[in-house]
Q: What sequence folds into this?
């Protein structure tokens, strides 16, 4: 090959090189500009207030059989919204259904009644004369106390298949229980009987079910809670905070035989150790690492849409107040204990999400407030709708524990050439179990992660992780993996809480 000595040929080479390199840079820039965004897959529609002076600090949301959406507010109102699914194509019509309630944080519909969970009671409402306003208010249950302390919130669930409703009661302040059953989960039967179900609650932000119908609540970081988490309410269980245990004498007769009073826990312990000491202690199912993913988890909604809300049917969505987000959670049972992974889902809401509803038609509604806590969303309140665009996001779908690592599934096939060890990085840590407020991440471990197997269809792979650490959050980062279409993961991080290691 001759050297390029001719000025003409040299100029041609430089020009051609510039063109090729410029095209390469353009391709890279275009790819970067077209990197997938959450809004490509899920859109957020913001609703205007019904009046200029209306404040919709939503605490819970419910679907009425006639298609209206009900939202209760921290200021004691219940609003009904027509055209909530069609807005803004059809203007939303707001009607004030009830007011003068005591900071309601639960809504559920049953047999023509709207049940509202207020701080001091469960009340059911009905519009008998058909004018759009509730004119019948009946107390269903009020067998717990309030002292007037700001912190004594009461959150309510939807109905289970047997017609039971559930309430989760915050402690008084952050450290004491100065009113009956503060720090407990209660079951309200169809007849209005109050049944103490579980103790050890600190500061719930929501209560609801998974797709299988098991009950969960979200608890916030604080005393005996190193980080916020999603917790399984196993009947008769102790959830970790002993400050409400003073009410055990009042459970006699309500549930037949009261569960044993958990012993006082020792200072500076770990959840793994306390599970050995306290037979009824159920550890958090999924820890939501404080500051990394949020500061205050709230509403809980299972995806029962059968795929109408995207590829996550059967999983659970959890609201986040401080960071103005919604999380996605995959749950599994290992050795009879719930555990699983939290994945980011959607952010950018206008205020701090508290209420959450996901309909069987695959439409999500959120409502929220920033009063008292503050939120990334800059508005004082919000009511918003989330719709799936129909496009398939490239996501980690499930993260399952194995005896020697984890199995990851994906929403679409991966490029096997990118499924290499260098694409995966993991750290593991836990929190101090203590009466002091919160905890730093402690007992850090840096596991070695290797790709053990990639499925023939490219929809899953197996990671070998050495070591696995029982009781630790295993935080996984997946930077280099690509789909067969060449896309990066929409969210490249997962947080798995490993309460139990499966048997080989």
A:
């Amino acid at each position: 090959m001759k050297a390029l000595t001719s000025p003409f040929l040299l100029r041609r080479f430089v020009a051609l090189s510039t063109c090729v390199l410029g095209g390469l840079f353009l391709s890279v820039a275009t790819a970067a500009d077209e990197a997938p965004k959450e809004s490509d897959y899920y859109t957020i529609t913001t609703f205007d207030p019904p009046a200029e002076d209306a404040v919709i600090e939503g605490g819970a949301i419910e679907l009425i059989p006639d298609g209206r959406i009900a939202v209760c507010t921290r200021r004691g109102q219940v609003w009904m919204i027509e055209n909530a699914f069609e807005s803004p194509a059809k203007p939303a019509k707001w009607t004030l259904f009830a007011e003068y309630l005591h900071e309601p944080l639960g809504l559920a519909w049953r047999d023509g009644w709207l049940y509202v969970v207020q701080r001091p009671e469960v009340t059911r409402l009905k519009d008998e004369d058909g004018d759009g306003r509730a004119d019948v208010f009946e107390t269903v249950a009020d067998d717990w106390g309030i002292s007037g302390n700001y912190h004594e919130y009461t959150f309510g669930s939807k109905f289970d298949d047997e017609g039971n409703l559930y309430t989760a009661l915050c402690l008084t302040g952050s450290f004491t229980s100065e009113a009956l059953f503060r720090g407990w989960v209660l079951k309200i039967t169809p007849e209005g009987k109050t049944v103490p179900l579980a103790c050890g609650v600190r500061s719930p932000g929501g209560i609801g079910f998974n797709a299988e119908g098991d009950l969960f609540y979200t608890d916030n970081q604080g005393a005996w809670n190193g980080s916020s988490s999603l917790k399984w309410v196993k009947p008769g269980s102790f959830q970790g905070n002993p400050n409400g245990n003073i009410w055990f004498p009042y459970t006699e007769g309500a549930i037949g035989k009261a569960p044993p009073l958990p012993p006082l826990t020792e200072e500076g312990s770990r959840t793994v150790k306390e599970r050995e000491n306290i037979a009824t202690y159920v550890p958090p199912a999924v820890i939501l690492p404080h500051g990394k993913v949020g500061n205050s988890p709230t509403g809980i909604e299972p995806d029962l849409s059968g795929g109408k809300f995207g590829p996550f049917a059967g999983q659970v969505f959890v609201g986040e107040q401080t960071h103005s987000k919604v999380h996605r959670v995959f749950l599994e049972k290992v050795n009879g204990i719930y555990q699983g992974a939290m994945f980011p889902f959607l952010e950018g809401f206008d205020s701090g999400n508290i209420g959450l509803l996901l309909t069987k038609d695959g439409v999500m509604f959120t409502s929220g407030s920033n009063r008292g806590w503050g939120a990334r969303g800059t508005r004082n309140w919000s009511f918003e709708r989330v719709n799936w665009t129909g496009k398939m996001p490239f996501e980690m779908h499930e993260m399952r524990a194995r005896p020697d690592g984890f199995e990851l599934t994906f929403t679409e096939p991966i490029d096997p050439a990118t499924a290499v060890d260098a694409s995966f990085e993991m750290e593991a840590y836990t929190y101090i179990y203590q009466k002091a407020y919160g905890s730093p991440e402690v007992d850090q471990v840096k596991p070695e992660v290797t790709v053990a197997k990639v499925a023939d269809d490219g929809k899953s792979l197996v990671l070998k992780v050495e070591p696995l650490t029982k009781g630790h959050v295993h935080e996984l980062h997946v930077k280099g993996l690509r789909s067969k279409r060449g896309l990066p993961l929409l969210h490249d991080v997962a947080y798995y809480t490993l309460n139990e290691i499966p048997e080989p």
In short: Residues 1-33 have pLDDT under 50 and may be disordered. The chain has two domains: 40-389, 397-497. The CA atoms of residues 363 and 387 lie 6 Å apart.
